[in-house]
């Protein structure tokens, strides 16, 4: 897997405790699939997985993250001109969407990879966007979606921005308004389970899953979660290599609740 050193060319703090680093990486920017991630070296034993948050026409890619521990604190302290040691691009991203309406549902730091999807598909697909988080301070990239001409529906658990409550409220309304269409989601695992359950198996639903990682390239099995094989039998899937984006029917907990 390509290991490279990428130079930080811009640094922003879009929200408190949230940092976006823009890296000079023309080859990555040209080929990135939404949902793919970088495994970034930080001091200590393990790299940290961060999804790409944007790919710009002038050859930059973004990493937008929330500071939650030592690794992301170290990353947040990087400045323009610093170099990051990354393995990228890693993982399976979202597939090319089928024709027809596409709904993007992002929760918290699950929002950034969906912006790459919006950049890629806003011109060719009728796109709707739902963004949610616990509080207004964790809802990121709203203005970025707006620059693409999109008007995201916003929800916060505490009602500090948009509709009070979870993303499942506007999701249920969107599903009721659309007979077909497809749903892509990224966010905390309970949110993904709720999205999979609401969408059901009648339309395509792809979920970007987050899991603690070791190697990031499929070798150590640190990131396995229960999945479903082609024969319908349980099997372990590696989030880093088989995902992080999965057809919701491939995840055991999603779409199979109530069984076993
Ligand atoms: C494929 C993938 C893409 C990701 N993309 C992003 C992104 O775009 N932006 C972003 O902010 N974060 C993202 N994450 C999560 C990010 O990797 C973790 O927040 C980061 O590794 C934490 O490192 P740390 O050293 O700062 O914190 P640690 O000290 O390692 O952990 C601090 C806290 O965060 C929790 N945590 C750590 N890693 C994860 C994880 N993978 N999933 C859930 N909880 C975790 C720990 O349980 C602990 O409570 C992604 C994770 C994966 C697997
Ligand atoms: S992190 Fe090593 S197999 Fe996924």
Q: What secondary-structure arrangement, pairings included, does this model have?
A:
Elements: E1 3-15, E2 18-24, H1 26-31, E3 37-40, E4 48-55, E5 60-66, H2 70-76, E6 83-90, E7 102-107, H3 111-121, E8 127-133, H4 142-147, E9 153-156, E10 163-164, H5 168-177, E11 182-186, H6 189-199, E12 205-208, E13 224-228, E14 234-238, E15 245-247
Parallel strand pairs: 7-8, 7-11, 8-9, 9-10, 11-12
Antiparallel strand pairs: 1-2, 1-6, 2-5, 3-4, 3-6, 4-5, 12-15, 13-14
How would you describe this protein?
The chain is an alpha/beta fold. The protein has two domains: 3-90, Translation factors (Elongation Factor Tu (Ef-tu), domain 3), CATH 2.40.30.10; 102-250, 3-Layer(aba) Sandwich (Rossmann fold), CATH 3.40.50.80. It has six helices and 15 strands. It has a seven-stranded mixed beta sheet, sandwiched between helices. Strands 1-2-5-4-3-6 form a six-stranded antiparallel barrel. It has a two-stranded antiparallel sheet with strand order 13-14. A hairpin with a 4-residue loop joins strand 4 (48-55) and strand 5 (60-66). Helix 5 (168-177) runs parallel beside helix 6. The radius of gyration is 18 Å and the shape is globular. The relative contact order is 0.14. It binds flavin-adenine dinucleotide (FAD) and FE2/S2 (inorganic) cluster (FES). The site of FE2/S2 (inorganic) cluster (FES) has 13 residues, from loops.
């Amino acid at each position: 897997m390509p290991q490279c050193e990428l130079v930080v060319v811009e640094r922003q703090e879009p929200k408190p405790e949230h940092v976006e680093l823009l890296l000079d990486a023309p080859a990555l920017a040209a080929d990135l699939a939404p949902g793919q991630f970088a495994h970034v070296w930080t001091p200590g034993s393990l790299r940290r997985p961060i999804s790409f948050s944007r790919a710009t026409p002038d050859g930059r890619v973004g990493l937008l993250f929330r500071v939650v521990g030592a690794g992301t604190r170290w990353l947040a302290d990087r400045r323009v001109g610093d170099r990051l040691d990354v393995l990228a691009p890693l993982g399976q991203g979202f597939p090319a969407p089928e024709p027809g309406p596409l709904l993007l549902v992002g929760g918290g730091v699950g929002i950034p990879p969906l912006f790459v999807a919006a950049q890629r598909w806003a011109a060719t697909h009728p796109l709707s966007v739902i963004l949610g988080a616990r509080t207004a301070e964790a809802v990121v990239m709203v203005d970025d979606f707006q620059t693409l001409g999109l008007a995201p529906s916003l929800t916060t658990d505490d009602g500090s921005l948009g509709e009070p409550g979870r993303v499942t409220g506007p999701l249920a309304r969107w599903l009721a308004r659309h007979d077909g269409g497809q749903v892509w989601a990224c966010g905390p695992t309970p949110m993904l389970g709720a999205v999979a359950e609401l969408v059901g198996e009648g339309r395509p639903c792809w979920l970007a899953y987050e899991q603690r990682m070791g190697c990031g390239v499929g070798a150590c099995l640190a990131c396995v979660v229960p999945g479903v094989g082609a024969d319908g039998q349980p099997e372990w899937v590696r989030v880093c290599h088989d995902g992080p984006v999965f057809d919701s029917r491939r995840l055991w907990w999603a779409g199979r609740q109530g069984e076993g």
